[in-house]
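Self-study notes.
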Amino acid sequence: MSKTARKIASPRMVALTPMFYMQSVQQAFYNATFPLFIASFHDPNTDLSIKLYLAGTLALASSCVALVLTKVGYRLRSLHLLSAVWASQALALLLVLFLRPVNNLAALFPIGIILGVTDAVIRTQNFILINEMFPEAADTPSAFACFNFHQSLGLGIFFISSKYLLGPDRVPNMAVWVPLQMGIFLIAVIGVGMGQRWYSPRSQHATSAPLEEVVKIEEDSLGIALDDTIATRDSSKM
């Protein structure tokens, strides 16, 4: 427990924490808020069916993209991928904001696919970044414990507060949801960039390599100097 608590406050974990809350706010929006754009009150059965189809489309898109990313995600640079997904997420949310697509299935389903893709990227990148930032076997369990703590806390906060982010007509208030999600996402991208620059094993390797070369040069120089000293002493005895 104490190790996990210390890990939560570590600089590497603080750099990744916004990504965990980004996943939480996405889950709250996708599962509790986005389906409320279906508001066919005349037929509750149709209303429920369309909501389930919309949720299923989003989940299917997320699952397919996540399956691909589990194979190639480690080959992609997280910062570049997240920046591209940030733009895609902004486009989808702005479309919802300006179109206000209540019962507009032609707009809701394509937007749902875009949101499903961004959800898959966020979820898979969280696992990849944890493995990259905490490669030591002893740190991995506590790092994932911190991830579960932040995600559970975020889910609770955003799910509970989602009912207060509805308009007077019980439709999601996108004037609040858009800056909330995009603000957290932007902070998350900045945190990933800082974390990868300062704490990733690749950057550490880049800084440690010159030091290793210096140590080797010093060892070689010491060996040469020692050989010269022995040779000088032997010649003086003769």
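Second protein, same conventions, sequence then structure:
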Amino acid sequence: MNSRSRDTAVTFAMGFAALAGIILLAQAVDHIQDVDNQVAERTQQRYCEGVAIWQAEAARGVTIDRRAGYPDHLGIAAEQCPGASQAGLVDYTPTGPRQLVQF
């Protein structure tokens, strides 16, 4: 094998390795985006569940200091939570000091 064909073979191998690396990187980025979307969907689902629990307890007349869940503090439930606008969720406006945790 002469020097020129060896250089061509090395160049081809390096190009092939670079192409394989780019393909693997693209697949990794795609997987990360899929996982990120799944996490975002689950986070929104949990937020909507907490708001729904809060609103259901409000409808039952449970006082604020005894309710489970949490109010729509982001103000997105009507737009982002399935069925929230049809359920007639009430707006929560705090009137006193906010209590984050009750023991």
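Instructor comment on the second fold: Residues 13 and 19 are 10 Å apart (CA to CA).
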